[in-house]
Request: fold
Amino acid sequence: MKGYWLIIGTEVSDQEAQSEYGRLWKPISEKYQARLNPLKTPPQLKEARDANRVTVVEFPSFELAKACHSDPAYEEARRFALQASKRELLLVEGELV
Reply:
């Protein structure tokens, strides 16, 4: 079964940190075969306090989704993501599309 990260975040408040996260994320996503926003119709955020962004990251398997999240390279990148905005990340197993 596929694995997904569902990331619900606030507006980006630190563009430099977001850019650094993107730079660090690129080789990580390639290593784990991650695809950003693979859904034909993006999720609609209907009930959220401060959040206004939803990002879906698809992995070929749930095991890869978990391994990516545990990777030390992602831990480094994650620091910049959390500096750029507040966010929640959920790991999901299944088929969204």
Remarks:
- The beta strands are 3-9, 35-36, 53-59, 87-93.
- The radius of gyration is 13 Å.
